Amino acid sequence: MGARRTLLLLHGTGGSAQNLVPLGKSLDPTAALLSPEGKVLENGMRRYFRRHAEGVFDIEDLHARTEDLASFIKAACSKYSLPSEEVIAVGYSNGANIGSSVLLSFPSLLKGAVLLRPMVPFQPTHPVDLSQKAVLLCVGSHDAITGTADPIRLRQLYEDSGASVTVHVHQGGHELAHDDVEAARTWLQLQSSAGEDFFTL
Ligand code: MLT
User: Fewest beta carbons within 10 Å, which of 67, 76, 78, 139?
Assistant: First the structure.
């Protein structure tokens, strides 16, 4: 039997394709894992899109790279025969930001997203319908990179788009912690059991 669902793993700045594989396996051992590597190099560190400064994104590049990632998702689902309606992004930091950008720009490609230490990638200029999507935001109460205002804006953006939003607040900074992983695992389990209930009705 093929994998039930696919986790699209998106690493943070300076990460690699291997980075989040252990996390993906621990979140859902039965899921297929897609782990594309960021193609932008910033002082030798891999990222998914360019930025002018910390937290100041090159929006043109972000949109272009978001399209590239969208094409990758479509091609990978087709190549590996993965159910295209069962792809969930799991992104950390820069990976959370591009994952969010894909969800906002190409909602049909993702069922939802686990966004670990996210920021608002861009402000959509038209309403986005995410009423069938679910999002987990794992934010740090003292995250010096995202600040506190940005995750609050992101939550608002997703709620305004109709997504089902869950927020986990880690009492700490930008680094990922055990409680984030637990929150992500629990949230993912809830997503799959919600689907099972639907099919057994
Ligand atoms: C970003 O550039 O996407 C965010 O500032 C997070 C980071 O990668 O440092």
Answer: 78
- The H or E element spanning position 190 is helix 178-200
Q: Which helix (H) or strand (E) is 10 found in, with range?
A: strand 6-10
pTM reported for the whole predicted model: 0.95
* Residue 142, phi then psi, degrees to nearest 5: -125, 45
Q: Which two tokens stand for residue 153?
A: 């804006």
Ligand 1: residues with CB < 6 A are: 12-13, 51, 54-55, 93-94, 97, 119, 145
Q: Name every residue whose Cβ is closer than 8 Å to that of residue 197 and which is 6 or more positions away in sequence.
A: none
Report, in angstroms and rounded to the nearest whole number, the Rg of the chain calculated over CA atoms: 16
Point out the ligand 1 atom lying closest to the alpha carbon of residue 119.
4
The answer to whether the beta carbons of residues 109 and 102 sit under 8 Å apart is yes
Q: Which pLDDT tens digit goes with each residue over 138-159?
A: 999 999 999 999 999 999 999 9
Task: Name all domains of the chain by residue range, CATH numbers in brackets.
Answer: 6-194 (3.40.50.1820)
Q: Which atom of ligand 1 is nearest to the CA of 121?
A: 3
Please indicate whether residue 174 is annotated as part of the active site: yes
Which pair of tokens denotes residue 176? 């990922």
